[in-house]
Write a structure and sequence with these properties.
Elements: H1 3-22, E1 27-39, H2 48-53, H3 59-63, E2 66-71, E3 74-78, E4 83-87, E5 90-95, H4 101-114, E6 120-132, H5 136-146, E7 164-168, E8 177-184, E9 192-202, H6 209-241
């Protein structure tokens, strides 16, 4: 498929995801998607002007970036559509704009094609979404459904679910694990729920750093869109399963 065809296909996928979210009975207030690499990094080099000089972002984006910190042990900055957070052991780029999921993937791939000798040991995809429930009843119903109170009532008064974490694998994926967490939203005060999904890939510890990096790039290129669709479907399933039936 041509580059133009790939962009068109990804635009359609993102458009379908947006329509899917709009049709949900729960309102999706905020969302964030991120790509994370674990390994050994030099945070100081990952500055906005480096990304611009490497032709990964526009000079105007670099000039307008908001710098959080630039230090030998940590770099944090943000632009209008993405955020970078890097330590000596962790590289993370994220966006809160669902229309920028493809550019985020291309930014990650472009960065590590330039830094071809970077020792990367693992890669992770993350989706963090916050939903506003329609009522207090539906907010409580989510907890009642996934953490039934009958087992807790004999030992706790007014038991309530704070955090639920489940781990497994995704059909058709070669990742090591999928972790899903449900908890009250810290961003939505009234009846908010956060659903966080992480997909983790360990890279071959016996492979050379260049070979691990090649695997890293293939994983991002081949799995990012599938992960995002899975995350959307998983959120919809979890919310639908716990929905209060109309009487």
């Amino acid at each position: 498929m041509s580059a133009a065809g790939t962009l068109t296909m990804n635009y359609l996928l993102n458009s379908n995801r947006t329509r899917h979210m709009e049709s949900s009975p729960q309102r999706d207030e905020t969302s964030e998607a991120s790509i994370v690499a674990l390994g050994a990094f030099n945070p100081q080099i990952f500055q906005p002007q480096w990304f611009a000089a490497s032709q990964l972002i526009r000079k105007e984006e670099a000039d307008g970036a908001t710098i959080g910190v630039v230090h030998p042990e940590m770099t944090i900055f943000s632009t209008e559509w993405f955020k970078v957070e890097i330590t000596n052991a962790r590289f993370a780029i994220s966006t809160q704009d669902p229309t920028k999921h493809l550019p985020l993937r291309e930014l990650a791939i472009g960065t590590f094609r330039i830094l071809e000798h970077t020792p990367v040991t693992a890669v992770g995809f993350n989706s963090n979404r916050h939903f506003a429930m329609e009522s207090s009843d539906k907010w409580h119903q989510l907890g009642h459904h996934y953490a039934p109170k009958s087992s807790w009532s004999p030992i706790l008064k007014n038991p309530g679910m704070r955090v639920l974490i489940m781990e497994g694998t995704r059909e058709g994926s070669k990742s090591n694990r999928i972790t899903i967490k449900i908890e009250p939203s810290a961003k939505i005060k009234d009846h908010g729920v956060q659903i966080s999904i992480n997909e983790h890939f360990d890279l071959d510890a016996d492979a050379s750093p260049p070979d691990r990096l090649k695997s890293f790039l293939v994983i991002i290129e081949s799995n990012w869109d599938e992960f995002l669709k899975y995350a959307d479907d998983a959120c919809e399933h979890l919310l639908s399963e716990a929905k209060i039936e109309e009487k």
